[in-house]
Amino acid sequence: MDICVYCASSNAIAEDYFALARELGAAMAEQGMGLVYGGGSVGMMGELARAVHAAGGHVVGVIPQFLLDREVGYLQADELIVTTTMRERKRMMDERAAAFVALPGGFGTLEELLEILTLRQLGYHDKPIIIVNAGGFFDPLLAQFERGFASGFTHERYRRLYEVAGSVSEALALLAAGDAGIDKAGS
Questions:
Q1: Residues 75-122 pLDDT 10s
Q2: What family name appears in the similarity comment (predicted)?
Q3: DSSP string covering 37-85, please?
């Protein structure tokens, strides 16, 4: 099972975030899960890919040519798919993934997370989506989600679109259960 992971490409972040990426990467590989991700060698993305490899896992990177030209691609990936556009990159990542995990990140991470949530809401896929809220990083975003529910902008049934995990072990348990974000009541 290949898991698409969204996370930061910044190197200017606290070591705790790099450790989180390494922990997830190692744990995924140990459980036989492959990585599909944005193909970068920097930031949490690079740490994640290297950790998957170090634990014997399989890495698929998907990167646009313009980013590869900037020498930020993880050339050691088992498969490095080079795309023309960011949209093509996201489509390929979406198609290859059995589930999605969001770690802390910036605009790109948030954009990818919100798009994959929206695509699930619209019925384009029914794959699990897990937000790893390590250290409360996503608390403001989750509060905004709650505001949307409370204000009627987002229907209550869409709470089932995602699960929130407080740790890597909790995220992996949700993935292993295979039902993250699925409303068992059928509503």
A1: 999 999 999 999 999 999 999 999 999 999 999 999 999 999 999 999
A2: Belongs to the LOG family.
A3: E--BSSHHHHHHHHHHHHTT--EEEEEEHHHHHTT-B-TT-SEEEEESS
**Average pLDDT over every residue of 35-44:** 97
Instruction: Check residues 84 and 183 and name the one with the higher pLDDT.
Output: 84
- Centroid of chain to Cα 159: 18
Q: How many CB atoms lie within 10 A of CB 132?
A: 26
Taking residue 82's Cβ as centre, other Cβ atoms within 10 Å add up to 16
Query: Domain spans of the chain?
Result: 2-176
Cβ burial of 56 (10 Å; 0-12, 13-18, 19+) is exposed
- Is pLDDT of 183 > 70? no
- Any idea which architecture 2-176 has in CATH? 3-Layer(aba) Sandwich (3.40)
- The owner of tokens 């407080």 is 166
Question: Any residues with CB less than 8 A from the CB of 126 and at least 6 apart, and which?
Answer: 120, 182
Given a cut of 80, whether residue 186 has pLDDT beyond it is no
- In this structure, the dihedral spanned by the alpha carbons of residues 78, 3, 125 and 185, taken in order and rounded to 10 degrees, is 160
